[in-house]
Design goal:
The complex is a heterodimer.
Chain A lengths: L3 E4 L2 E5 L5 E6 L7 E6 L6 E6 L5 E4 L2 E6 L4 E6 L8 E7 L8 E2 L3 E6 L1
Parallel strand pairs in A: 2-11
Antiparallel strand pairs in A: 1-3, 3-8, 4-5, 4-9, 6-7, 7-8, 9-10, 9-11
Chain B lengths: L3 E4 L2 E4 L5 E7 L6 E7 L5 E8 L5 E2 L8 E7 L2 E6 L8 E8 L8 E2 L3 E5 L1
Parallel strand pairs in B: 2-11
Antiparallel strand pairs in B: 1-3, 3-8, 4-5, 4-9, 5-6, 7-8, 9-10, 9-11
The chains are: A mainly beta, B mainly beta.
Chain lengths: 112, 116
């Protein structure tokens, strides 16, 4: 019940396309859902995060869609660029707990 | 804001030696720091959680005598890999919370440890 399931494992998209990465969870106590971007040999960097009181959050070209009833959330990258090629991780935690439960990651490649 | 640094970024050591990795929050006071290990093409595996001035809480399966964690101040935590062996070779990453009053974890750039 503590798992966060992330898909797909890898994704190749043409430049300008909209890659979508999906995550699903079981534990309804989760109330914080961040997305992290990681480049090879670097630590993860927070991209965007959402709480379950909103269904969508947008920051620049990155959008999180959140479906509380389905216990799913997804990351959309608008106007994708080759520089967006990285591994993306979704995660979840319970307020005040701090411990993140991680998805398995999605390796995204944006082709020029 | 909310910058976390790690030192060193890379370290190569001989089997049997000990290695210390530092994690610092540069522009905020970190109430809680975390240490992760990441294997190639895998997700992050939490090793331990530490709060300033108290003993670290280790995850199941992580040897506390092998991976010594010290959180001496609100801006510094250290991970010491004692008597390192080749199987300890990995990418170690720290994170910290407390920078903005939320649950957000801010990550350091990671340390690549290679044990020969």
């Amino acid at each position: 019940q503590q798992q966060v399931k992330q898909s797909p494992q890898s994704l190749i998209v043409q430049k300008g396309g909209i890659p979508i990465i999906n995550c699903a969870y079981e534990n309804t106590a989760f109330d914080y859902f961040p997305w992290y971007q990681q480049f090879p040999g670097k630590g993860p960097a927070l991209l965007i995060a959402i709480r379950p009181d909103v269904s969508e959050k947008k920051e620049g070209r990155f959008t999180i869609s959140f479906n509380k009833s389905a216990k799913q959330f997804s990351l959309h990258i608008m106007d994708s660029q080759p520089g967006d090629s990285a591994t993306y991780f979704c995660a979840a935690s319970i307020r005040g707990n701090y411990q993140l439960i991680w998805g398995a990651g999605t390796k995204l490649i944006i082709k020029p | 804001g909310a910058v976390v640094s790690q030192h060193p970024s890379r370290v190569i050591c001989k089997s049997g030696t000990s290695v210390k990795i530092e994690c610092r929050s540069l522009d905020f006071q970190a109430t809680t720091m975390f240490w992760y290990r990441q294997f190639p093409k895998k997700s992050l595996m939490l090793m331990a959680t530490s709060n300033e001035g108290s003993k670290a809480t280790y995850e199941q399966g992580v040897e506390k005598d092998k991976f010594l964690i010290n959180h001496a101040s609100l801006t510094l935590s250290t991970l010491t890999v004692t008597s390192a062996h080749p199987e300890d070779s990995s990418f170690y990453i720290c994170s910290a919370t407390g920078g903005d009053g939320t649950d957000t974890q801010y990550f350091g750039p990671g340390t690549r440890l290679t044990v020969l």
